[in-house]
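A reminder from the course coordinator: this example appears on the midterm review sheet, so study it carefully.

Given structure:
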């Protein structure tokens, strides 16, 4: 009996520890998103002040080639047009399902959580501070 009670106690403590860690990670991610969104909004204001007009954004399909029209307008963050921001300061990874419906009607990617370090953990090794990436696009915008 005692060993069974110890096992249940250990399991309960372990579950509580995991839940606490998940809450802390979620809070950190939300705080980072908040700071990044403020940085994006400052960048958007600078784009507009510099006269850099937003462009219609296109997304790439997960599979296959070409691009897919979206209902979004904004500014590309990377030359490869994989990331963008819109006027409201939302951050987009421009990848969508490339099915026939999307190719005919277009797609609307959902905004994602904005990071302060863009590309962290990516396989290509291209990582940028968000503020540096916004500055690069201010100096060298990606055309439509």
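Designed residues:
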């Amino acid at each position: 009996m005692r060993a069974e009670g110890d096992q249940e106690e250990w399991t309960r403590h372990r579950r509580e520890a995991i839940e606490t860690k998940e809450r802390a990670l979620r809070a950190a991610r939300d705080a980072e998103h908040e700071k990044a969104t403020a940085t994006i909004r400052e960048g958007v204001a600078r784009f507009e002040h510099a006269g850099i007009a937003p462009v219609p954004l296109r997304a790439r399909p997960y599979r296959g080639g070409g691009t897919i029209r979206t209902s979004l307008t904004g500014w590309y963050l990377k030359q490869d047009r994989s990331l963008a921001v819109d006027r409201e300061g939302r951050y987009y990874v421009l990848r969508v399902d490339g099915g026939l419906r999307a190719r005919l009607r277009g797609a609307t990617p959902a905004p994602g959580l904005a990071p302060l370090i863009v590309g962290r953990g990516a396989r290509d090794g291209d990582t940028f501070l968000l503020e540096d990436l916004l500055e690069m696009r201010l100096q060298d915008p990606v055309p439509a």
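The longest strand covers residues 68-76. The radius of gyration is 20 Å.
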